[in-house]
Amino acid sequence: MRFTLEELADLAPGGSVEVRVPPDGAVQAVAGPRHTRGTPPNVVETDPQTWLALATGVLTWADAVAAGRVHASGERADLADWLPLQAARAR
């Protein structure tokens, strides 16, 4: 699980979005203003099963958001360009 979060941070370097997959981990990713204290303005949170489905392409970002399986807040909190991880790496 942690590896896939680190892979996202490598694909989308930056610190404007905090991606949380409790209890497994969290990373900051996506270029833009870096968050340093308090509640970040751009947050993505989901459960481990949904995160793995997104990371591997079993589930699309749009479907996960529509089904309420991902909670995304903030103008930069759309990870569709970086998921699934392998497809994003190939781009």
Descriptive account of the structure:
It is a single chain. The protein has 91 residues and is α+β, with helices and mostly antiparallel strands. It has 4 helices and 4 strands; from the N terminus they run αβββααβα. It has helices at 2-11, 48-56, 61-66, 85-90; strands at residues 17-21, 25-29, 43-46, 70-73. A 4-stranded mixed β-sheet has the order 2-1-3-4. The two termini are 22 Å apart. The model has no long low-confidence stretch (mean pLDDT 92).
What tags apply to this protein structure?
single chain; 91 residues; alpha+beta; 4-stranded mixed beta sheet; 4 helices; 34% helix; 20% strand
How confident overall, as mean pLDDT? 92
Order of helices and strands: HEEEHHEH
Structural class: alpha+beta
Report Rg: 12 Å
Report the uncertain regions.
none
Report the sheet with the most strands, covering strand number, pairing sense and barrel closure.
Answer: 4 strands, mixed
Strand content: 15-25%
Q: What's the helical proportion of residues?
A: 25-40%
- Please report the total strand number as a whole number: 4
Judging from the principal axes of the Cα atoms, what is the shape?
Answer: globular
Numbering strands along the chain, what is their spatial order in the largest sheet? 2-1-3-4
- Count of DSSP-assigned helices: 4
Quaternary form: single chain
TL;DR?
The protein has 91 residues and is of the alpha+beta class.
List strands and helices in order, with pairings.
Layout: H1 2-11, E1 17-21, E2 25-29, E3 43-46, H2 48-56, H3 61-66, E4 70-73, H4 85-90
Parallel strand pairs: 1-3
Antiparallel strand pairs: 1-2, 3-4
